[in-house]
Amino acid sequence: MPAKTILTILFLISLGVAVIVFLHALPQPLSADTRAEKNEILVATTTLPAGTLLRAKDVAWQATTKAEPGQILRPSGTASNENAELDQQARGEVYGAAMRVGVKAGDPIGRSAIVKPGDRDFLLVVLSPGARAIAIPVATGGASTGLLYPGDRVDVILTQSFTNDPPLTRRSVSETFVESLRVLAVDAADVKPAGANNGFGRTVTLEVTPEQAEKINVATELGKLSLTLRSISGASGVAMTYAAGSAKTQGVRPTWAGDVSPALGDATPPHQAIAAEKPAIEVIHGTKSVAVTPQ
């Protein structure tokens, strides 16, 4: 066989192999059924009534063969933890949002079915009948440093310091004056332009009764407010109410500086401690009055 013919055959074989390799390297189009099987949508893990504030435990991904417009799809490549941050962002799209309508366990959660904090009608959707919403600045520390999420329940603590020369054991006091309030929204931490914290950790929006709103407004004028996170055990899912005009919650007593630090009692001069424990009594004789200190 002539050498020219052999070279031509080898060239054609090489060209055929190259074409086959090139075609295999191209991405293979998926059928409609294959694409559908790879879709995962966000669904409710339990029955969620209208007004429910969504948390991580309320939603999960579920495979579907037919994704509808408006449903929240799981980003591709996140099922095997290849991009956990992207997956978390997709789920976080609904965290803290309120349900416009109720859904059953396993039902998809569409974007039109939720309303997010900051939206115009958020509070109208999330508030329980007869309840109010109040935003308060919470001091840095405790539950205000990032432990709170919408839907949590908290107690509000008022801490005061007195400067009118009381005994050392009575110069500071802390007391819980409202309990089990539902957190509606948590704003980002306030930071000064230079990057220094301005003394407040968060502005937290709470669901309250009218009487509780009045107490909180007075408390903001008296001292520093902080929040403590409550267990969800026994929570009814609606705002708790308290008797109008009650000074503090049932069974909660103030905690004074002397209760925290017994050493303050040793630092108090004896005569000052006696004066504090035995206040003067005013005795009236006719038109004259005399202050008498009990012995």
Overall description:
With 295 residues, the chain is α+β, with helices and mostly antiparallel strands. The protein has two domains: 32-115, Type Iii Antifreeze Protein Isoform Hplc 12 (Alpha-Beta Complex); 128-267, no CATH class. Helix content is 25%, strand content 25%. It has helices spanning 3-25, 32-38, 84-92, 122-126, 210-222, 257-260, 263-267, 270-277, and strands at 40-44, 59-63, 98-99, 114-115, 132-139, 153-161, 172-186, 200-208, 224-229, 255-256, 281-285, 288-292. Strands 5, 6, 7, 8, 9 and 10 form a six-stranded antiparallel sheet that branches. Strands 1-2 form a two-stranded antiparallel sheet. A two-stranded antiparallel sheet has the order 3-4. A hairpin with a 2-residue loop joins strand 11 and strand 12. The termini are far apart. Mean pLDDT is 76; it is low at 190-200 and 235-248.
> What number is the mean pLDDT?
76
Biggest sheet record:
6 strands, antiparallel
Number of helices: 8
- β-strand amount: 15-25%
Global geometry = elongated
